[in-house]
Amino acid sequence: MKEEQEIIRKCGKGNPFIVPEGYFEDFARNIMTQLPTENYTAEDDAAPVVTMWQRVKPLLYMAAMFIGMIMCVRVVLGDHMTNNTINSDNLAALEFSWADFEQMSDEELASMVEYTMMDNYSLYQYLSEIE
Fold first, then answer.
1. Closest among 123, 103, 105 to 115, alpha carbons compared
2. pLDDT in tens, 31-72
3. What is the pTM of this model?
4. What Rg do the C-alpha atoms of the chain give, in angstroms?
5. Residues 96 and 130: beta-carbon distance below 8 Å
6. Closest among 94, 69, 75, 96 to 84, alpha carbons compared
7. How far lies 52's CA from each of 41, 49, 55, 62, 113, in Å?
8. Do the beta carbons of residue 101 and residue 127 sit within 8 Å?
9. Maximum CA pair distance of the chain?
10. Tell me, what's the pLDDT at 126?
11. 26 CA to centre of own chain
């Protein structure tokens, strides 16, 4: 409150902005003198000619953007994309027999089911197909 009173004392309450004398009386005439005097025709308002390059350019830029994104993903993932192939060496490690499941403890089986996000019915179907 004290600071506000000090500011009012220094600056006052008057409006610091003023309008020059006769500004609004001459306003319309001043605007009209500033407008161009050329006569426009309907041809000036015609739509601009669009070239083939102007049509193709957005599609080309979009294709370049997607190629760039794919290249970035390949750089980030690196060898992870190519090492996921299944060959005869790791196929033997992936295959389980019924005996393997019978030897598993309940905790191991539960963690496997949780990891694969299988429900009980899907697990039952999978185990019945192994025999």
1. 123
2. 888 887 777 666 656 778 889 999 999 999 999 999 999 999
3. 0.31
4. 40
5. yes
6. 94
7. 27, 10, 5, 16, 58
8. yes
9. 103
10. 73
11. 52
Residue 130 corresponds to which tokens in the numbers above?
Answer: 């192994």
14 token code pair: 């008057």
Q: Tokens 């506000």 — which residue? A: 4
Q: Please, are residues 123 and 113 in contact by the beta-carbon 8 Å criterion?
A: yes
Which of 130, 128, 131, 125 lies closest to 94 in space, CA to CA?
Answer: 130
Q: Give the length of the chain.
A: 131
DSSP per residue, 76-129: HHGGGTTTT---HHHHHHH---HHHHHHS-HHHHHHHHHHHT--HHHHHHHHHH
